[in-house]
Specification:
Number of domains: 2
Number of strands: 12
Shape: globular
Distance between the termini: 46 Å
CATH topology of the largest domain: Rossmann fold
Bound molecules: flavin-adenine dinucleotide
Length: about 240
């Protein structure tokens, strides 16, 4: 009986996979809160699984009532790592997937699917992120660092307060003085205060011919694109992803 059930389960998964693309079920190895509302989730990595730094996949939680609720999240580990990592901002008020991820424990399972994503590294430039919009840049910077090619890449990172800065120590180690923070709700001695303005961009974009990578919530992206246009940055040089 167990064998017959196993056969049908396998057949069901194979049929689903053929219809909807590849499906992988991976066990959670570790869940860590890295800011008051951001989780770092490490999972197993399926064999022969490939992605390019900056790319994402659709993720669902392998629990009753959650299996079919997929949401896009970006890989923050390196392609060659033996595990996968995601850095995920949780929104309890949405009562959706990210809220349920707050209950995730070691050995629970995630379902991950095909790899996709608009942001990949094209060349040296200025990376501009708001909050969890930094996730595609985590893997890109880790990859450049591992290849000794971090060069003069710069990260402009906008958050509400210091406690919200995701992987602050990692970025400091990788980028040094090219890690520039701006905080909207907290005044500090070390960081700029307020929202990103044209003047702030002008100060930090030293070469308009370099790439500008932008990722954040849609209102921030709209504002940034208008500001970059005023600074005569050619659209060809802008690499973007809205979260
Ligand atoms: C390509 C891509 C990659 C991404 N990678 C990452 C990543 O690596 N890390 C990361 O943190 N995020 C990432 N995101 C964003 C992430 O996908 C969303 O934050 C996530 O889907 C939210 O899921 P959720 O189920 O918690 O809430 P949602 O799906 O946003 O909402 C669930 C329900 O809550 C309600 N709702 C929606 N908005 C509100 C609101 N403002 N207030 C109250 N209720 C609301 C709606 O009824 C909605 O149906 C990525 C997005 C994209 C497009």
């Amino acid at each position: 009986m167990k064998n017959i059930l196993g056969f049908f389960k396998n057949l069901f998964n194979k049929t689903k996979e053929a219809l909807t693309g590849e499906i992988h079920t991976v066990k959670v190895k570790k869940v860590k809160k890295i800011t008051p509302d951001v989780l770092q989730i490490t999972t197993e990595k399926p064999g022969n699984f490939e992605f390019t730094p900056g790319q994402a996949t659709n993720v669902a939680i392998n629990k009753a009532n959650w299996k079919n609720k997929e949401r896009p999240f970006t890989f923050t580990s390196l392609p060659e790592d033996d595990h996968l990592e995601f850095v995920i901002k949780t929104y309890p008020s949405h009562e959706g997937v990210t809220n349920e991820l707050l209950n995730l424990k070691e050995n629970d399972e995630l379902i991950i699917r095909d790899v996709y994503g608009a942001i990949t590294y094209k060349g040296e430039g200025v990376f501009i992120a708001g909050g969890a919009g930094v996730t595609p840049f985590i893997s890109i910077f880790r990859d450049l660092k591992s290849k000794n090619k971090i060069g003069n890449n710069k990260l402009l990172f906008a958050n509400k307060a210091k406690k919200d800065i995701i992987l602050k120590k990692d970025f400091e180690d990788i980028l040094g003085s090219n890690f520039i923070n701006i905080l909207s709700d907290e005044k500090t001695k070390e960081y700029e205060h307020g929202f990103i303005t044209e003047d702030f961009l002008k100060k930090h974009i030293d070469d308009p011919e370099k790439y500008i990578y932008i990722c954040g919530p849609p209102p921030m992206m709209d504002a940034l694109e208008k500001q970059l246009k005023k600074l005569n940055i050619d659209k060809k040089h802008i690499v973007r992803e809205a979260f």
